[in-house]
Design a protein that fits this description.
Elements (H helix, E strand, L loop, with lengths): L27 H10 L6 H21 L31 H5 L5 E2 L2 E2 L9
Antiparallel strand pairs: 1-2
Helix pairs in contact: 1-2
Length: about 120
């Protein structure tokens, strides 16, 4: 079963790349467009290199789309996660005096820190 999803390269891009697309769909114009969106300056050799690499990536995606996924439930993780959270058990902790002992600045029992958002 093919996924049938299309991964659009760019909202404004007229060169849409999608799984199952022929590798020849990757041309220098598309590579240059992606580079411009990424604010990259590429030499002619780099454009040719990335064109080949993007073509290989699309070919691999095309291969992945041929995998039969009938009967395979969707999963958020490749491996099931079991008991990833520990039990919430009260443990001994520092009292306020110990916690503030090494603070560079303390006021009324609280840490003093520089303001993060300055008022205008």
């Amino acid at each position: 079963m093919a996924l049938g999803r299309r991964a659009v390269l760019c909202y404004h891009c007229t060169n849409l790349l999608f799984a199952g697309a022929p590798v020849s769909m990757i041309d220098d114009r598309t590579v240059t467009h992606v580079a411009r969106l990424s604010r990259l300056e590429l030499s002619a050799e780099e454009v040719a290199q990335f064109r080949a690499q993007l073509g290989e990536i699309l070919a691999y995606i095309q291969t992945l789309n041929t995998v039969n996924l009938d009967g395979v439930p969707p999963a958020a993780q490749a491996r099931p996660a079991a008991d990833v959270l520990r039990d919430d058990v009260a443990r001994p902790s520092l009292d306020q005096k110990e916690a503030l002992a090494n603070a560079p600045a303390v006021e009324d029992g609280y840490f003093v820190v520089p303001p993060v958002i300055a008022e205008e």
